Amino acid sequence: MKQTPLENWILQRTGIHERSRQALEEYQIQQLASTLHYAKDNSRYYKKLLAQTDIDSIKSISGFHAVPFTYPEDIRKKPTDFLCVSEKEVKRIVTLNTSGTSGEEKRIYFTEGDLNQTIDFFQYGMNCLTDQSDRVLVLLPGKAYGSIGDLLKKALALSHIECIVHGVLRDPEEVEQIIMENGISCIVGIPMQILYFSRIKSEVFRKFIKKVLLSTDYVPGVLVQELESRFHCTVFNHYGMTEMGYGGGVECQALTGYHLREGDLYFEIIDPATGKPATDGQYGEVVFTTFGRQAMPLIRYRTGDMARFSKNHCACGTFLRTMDKVIGRITNKVVFDNSEEMHLRELDEIILKYSEVLDYTAAFSRTDTLEICLTLMKGELFEKLQEEIAERICAGWKTDLKLCMTWKPDSRIFKITNSMGKRNLIRLQEGGGKDG
Question: Where does the record place a coiled coil (predicted)?
């Protein structure tokens, strides 16, 4: 088994001379102090947040854990307060849609140097799964300068790997033609869009696609199992978000979790209720801090994603940490009166098991009704699916749950429900609107 290419890359980037956690953590402590000073000196937001923080007294990771958190709503309120450079130095601005009702949006800023830092990571991250024999199709946005597809294409070019950036999946017929004409062997995309495409274009998927990289959202286990067993693909997971600079970590050939971008980011897992560090093997909220980010450094940024650090060393032999796969958003659930919880990931494992389902939405009303709408290719299958899915859902929870299930036909020019956004278990207000 090939060791993750990220190890040698991180050793080169950090300049440490030994393969040890202690050496890497000493480097990270230095970078954390540098980030704190830079942000405090140049950002209006961090000048206030860190006003009472004695940065020079922080000599250990535990000392850094006393630094205040940064929250997504802080960015929404006034993103320009995070800027550490003049606006003329900003080469890319990403506006992120949110579920808030105030109309405020998160804006993330990047300089040319920030974008190049991401290209560097993408080059070595993609080397975890590709080589020069591969032809890669990217089903992510890529027309704009500095978009994720644009950066991936530039990164793969550095490894002399051919890459076509198509954009998010909208027309399966067009994507099928691209795969056949270009001999695509590796596909990068959004989990639900890849599942959809594989189910309606199973013949071309089975014939051409050997490797899949899933990114931008939580990846259901049943989805990976189907791609591996039905199409004999090797399925890799990538974890990242725009706030991280798109890239955070990627699986190696062991496929047991992400090796993290530890030379550019410091990751924590915390108890979301107390903010205290979680122990290895304990699920909690992912928190990160950036190193060397010029435009918009982020310090102890709370992602809302749930994951854990692995207790075990990776089979590839690296000394890098392994983060087990993210299992979804902490808030992506409903809590019943009997304190039982229903998570979107649990519905995924039930509903996506059926290959006739191309997509679905789930919404929970305050009248204790779970409303599920299935996207199906053939409507005559609905009655049988409805009965089986309802039986499995009702058997999974003790609460007295009312279930309303409908279906809609698949549209051939595909507009998937989640686009580039993360999928949600929707909570409806009494009047029928979404509960933000």
Answer: none
